[in-house]
Design brief:
Mean pLDDT: 96
Helix content: under 10%
Strand order of the largest sheet: 27-3-2-1-28
Shape: globular
Largest sheet: 5 strands, mixed
Radius of gyration: 18 Å
Order of helices and strands: EEEEEEEEEEEEEEEEEEEEHEEEEEEEE
Distance between the termini: 5 Å
Number of helices: 1
Length: 340
Amino acid sequence: MHVAVMGLNDGVVQLAERDGRWNLGEVSPIGHVESMAVDPANPNRIYAGAAEDGLWRSDDGGATWERVGAGITRPVVATVAVSGSRAGSDGNVVYVGTQLSAVYRSEDGGRTFEELRSFQDIPSRPIWATPPAPDTHHVCSLVADPPGGEGVILVGLEQAGVVRSSDGGETWDDLRPLADEDPHSMLVHPDAPGRVYIAGGVSYCESSDCGDSWNRQVDGFEVTYFDRMAIDPGDPDTIVISAAHEPFTGHGVFPSSQTWSTVYRRTNGSGWSEVTEGLPSREGTAMGFLAANAAEAGVFYYATLPGELYRSTDGGGSWRREDADAIGAHRVTGLVCTEI
């Protein structure tokens, strides 16, 4: 059964597809969800970082949740990620990034965590800052044990860039040149060893060597701000990305300003092209959330902030609004998809 799990401003909810309709489950009131991740070793297991309400885990595809995360000592859970290959005693190893920036690792399915303390000794740390709140910073994206990079941990910092460990968090390389300074989304693909993708507040960029070097790839873009991204499970060269001219209209920050966003696609090594077929109007639409289900090659999902769910079955070339129950007054803050 296809499942879409939406993070919300006040919890998390599962939508399950039955006979072409997506049925809304009960909202689990776990707090404001900042990040979610599916365990690649167990598609029923999903983690949710609920900002100041800690880390939560579901073992039934997002229908019910339990609080985990003992040992996370920073107050805000900003990012959760699951190792691509490293197994713990209960599923794959789990990582959490926080505000202020710190990285924690769990070997027991998220129940207990240990801080990677060497992360605090990275020389550039004094210059890390988020411009709207210059006295703070946080981990905004994280990849661990990517294909072709066992022991590699890549951490995206808002707003500083990307740092890397090549030895499982024992030591760290400082900020990587040409990696995006505001790396909102960082992903890898099981069929592309060494390749890392970033959608950021400055550019789109890639690495072909597990983050050792980066190059920016912007051919075809007519915008300069990027937020969420998904990669075709069946093709590491097909990517979709949410985009805007800048963050304020892209996120709909100011009610008096015209919200505007769009979606771009790249495939077969070509330049980026804007996609509009089947999607809501660019004007009046804030950047939503993109996801892919590892079990569905060629399929992408897009959740708008009002809670509408769109689906593409042709690798992101065209989209269709799905028949789904409305989520009401809740605000969407994230999306993952899986198979249960």
